[in-house]
Specification:
This protein has a 7-stranded parallel beta sheet. The protein has a 5-stranded mixed beta sheet with strand order 1-4-3-5-2, sandwiched between helices. 41% of the residues are buried. It has 290 residues and is of the alpha/beta class. The protein is 30% helix and 19% strand. The longest helix has 21 residues, at 261-281. It has helices at 12-22, 50-58, 92-98, 118-123, 141-153, 171-177, 191-200, 238-241, 261-281; strands spanning 4-5, 44-48, 63-69, 86-90, 107-112, 131-136, 158-161, 186-188, 204-208, 214-215, 225-230, 246-249. The chain has 2 domains: 4-112, 60s Ribosomal Protein L30, Chain: A (2-Layer Sandwich); 118-281, Alpha/beta knot, CATH 3.40.1280.10. It contains 9 helices and 12 strands.
């Protein structure tokens, strides 16, 4: 594969990589609420490391540019990069200066973010009711990435991100998602658009709370549902919780008042997946659409 050698930190592609990693765009992956197709130019996000690059290739994302440190060209041999991908060979210290991790890896890339829409969120799989997460003011990128990974693992249709939530393309979020962000629909929308679209689609909205809430294992999560996950310190804002049709809690027999946001989301996703598996296994059942 042809490599182009870069020796200057003023290289336009290197500058683009630095900007993408340091200030991930809120427009990435449709995070403006309309999909990347609404933009004049494709939105590019920065990723670091051969594992994430391999996941992006497997997901079928367009790889605009790959950066590889001199002496590590062999890392690319196992990757099925398309011929149109631009590949830059960069001195190790120059590449390290553009990356954000404490221990920079020898490979990075600029990838075109997926263009998700409401159709991806609500279409889902045949005879399976939509299962969505709504993130309201989540601030820790590691939590967001973990939630996206759990959402894919437990069969959710996608994740909706409300204003005030950290960008899904924050490098820490991308790493924590372990590639799930490349495959699972994620859409940033206004609260008004979120709740209006969910109600029009017949999706029941559950908020999460430790007070005046029903234990998650005692309510039906087999129909079309969306679960609100709030800020790590303050939970779901009261004005958003008021828009929900019910409140869920996770019974904890130990002396712990609340769980980490990503842990709580993962437990609720597991419970929903468990119920849905049992529900569809019943004779004559083809999935509860209500």
């Amino acid at each position: 594969m042809p490599l182009r050698i870069v020796q200057s930190k003023q290289n336009a592609r290197l500058k683009e990589l630095r900007k993408a990693l340091a200030s991930p765009s809120r427009l990435a992956s449709g995070e403006a609420g309309g999909g990347a197709s609404a933009l004049a130019q494709p939105v590019l996000a920065g990723i670091e490391g051969p594992n994430l690059l391999e996941e992006a290739v497997r997901a079928g994302l367009r790889i605009a540019c790959v950066f590889v440190a001199q002496g590590f060209e062999g890392v690319l041999e196992s990757l099925d990069l398309p011929p149109e991908t631009e590949i830059l060979l960069v001195p190790r210290d120059l590449l390290n200066a553009a990356l954000t991790t404490e221990t920079p890896q020898p490979v990075a890339a600029l990838i075109e973010t997926p263009d998700w829409t409401w159709a991806h969120m609500l279409g889902g799989r045949q005879n399976v009711a939509p299962l969505l997460l709504v993130l309201a003011g989540l601030q820790d990128p590691g939590n967001l990435g973990t939630i996206v990974r759990s959402a894919e693992a437990f069969g959710a249709n996608g994740v909706l991100s409300l204003p005030g939530t950290v960008s899904a393309w924050n490098p820490k979020a991308v790493r924590a998602s372990a590639g799930s962000l490349f495959r699972l629909p994620l859409l940033a929308v206004s609260a008004e658009d979120c709740f209006e679209s969910l109600r029009e689609a017949g999706v029941k909205i559950w908020t999460t709370s430790i007070h005046a809430a029903e234990p998650a294992d005692r309510v039906s999560l087999t129909g079309p549902i969306a679960i609100l996950i709030g800020n790590e310190g303050n939970g779901v804002p009261l004005e958003l919780a008021a828009k929900a049709e019910g409140a869920l809690t996770i019974p904890c027999p130990g002396p712990v008042e609340s769980l980490n946001a990503s842990v709580a989301a993962s437990v609720l996703l597991y419970e929903a997946a468990r119920q849905r598996s049992a529900h569809t296994a019943q004779p004559g059942r083809r999935g509860d659409r209500r």
